[in-house]
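Researcher: We're teaching a course module on how sequence relates to structure. For the next exercise, students receive a sequence and then see the predicted structure as tokens, so they can try to spot secondary structure elements on their own. Here is the exercise chain.
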Amino acid sequence: MVRSPSLRVDEPDQCDETEGDLEGKAEVGSGLLGASVGRVGGLELHQEHNRSEDGDIVPANLSPDYKAAEAAFRKSRDPSERMEWLREMLRTIPKHKGTEHLQADIKARIKGLAEQLESATKGAGHGGPALVIRPEGAAQIVLIGPPNAGKSSLHTRLTGSAAHVGLYPFTTQYPKAGMMPHEDVHFQLIDLPPIAQEHPVPWLVNTLQTADAALLVVDLGEPSCIEQLQAVRSMLGQQRVTLTERLEATADEDPFALRLPTLMLANKADGMADFDAELLALRELSGSRLPVFAVSAATGHGLGDIGPWLFQNLGIVRVYTKTPGHPADKHRPFTLRRGQTVGDVARLVHQDLARSLRYARVWGRSGFEGQQVGHDHCVADGDIVELHA
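Model: And here is the predicted structure for the students to work with:
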């Protein structure tokens, strides 16, 4: 098996610095706005200027209300909530020449997301396909790649779904969701249509917005593998989507650009005589720095390594809750990200509990047995938390 480099995660020293990094995806780009600094999620963005229609740089002077709405939009993973925050961004953005491009971009995003939400409603009522997949489980992972790379076969093998598999290209036409188990949690795996110049999918980029990471599937036995990989990166780049080996907080200029942490899966490894040589050639010719696993949907080779890799590199944290005088529920953990807190646990249980929470007791690696802690206490994987309102 090819040895895969780990996704590089820049570990901050403080709990509150990590939450913004890992709870929301790192989204960056060349974008519309300039002189922007701050954490992922827009929590500390200071956007200073924009370009007008004639190319002149003019002040944007974005208001605190707009920045708050943008921060909420970035953090949200629910499509309906993202629509609400987009509308709030449009309502609160200063209306002048310096924000013309950003206003147009927000309106386009609202239109595209509205069409997706409408398709989901019609699909639910009439049996049609939904283009919006609401995130579930520990993380939402999208399967992307060129035609006939074996995405649907991998999806079927990893989730037990009934994804349609064909020998001809473009078999997958709509998103297909399934749950991939890992220990006592599940990752939501979304099989998407292939990415190719001859078959563009207009709604694909909007579907990627709620994903936490991507699995890029390639077939090293395909002679045009390099060209296919370059085409995938180019098409996504045109839509301000970058596949990256890093999961990090980055100064963000464009609220709609997306950096998607990605693991490459070199499929059909069982058919390669010298996989190491093929993989080396792929890296050298494509310039890709993505971590790679050699896998086979046919034999199952390497598939058992995907769940542990996602769990570790996405910073998944399992927390088990208990009520006073009763044992912890060890069957259905709440899943958070490394650096999140007791307050985040309370919000997952119920929004009202988050507001009324006075303190919590914690058992596990983040404190001594039964330690009384406050809202800002960082939880660790395997912690048991008893919430007191």
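Model: If you want an answer key for the exercise: The chain has a mean pLDDT of 80. DSSP finds eleven helices and 17 strands in the chain.
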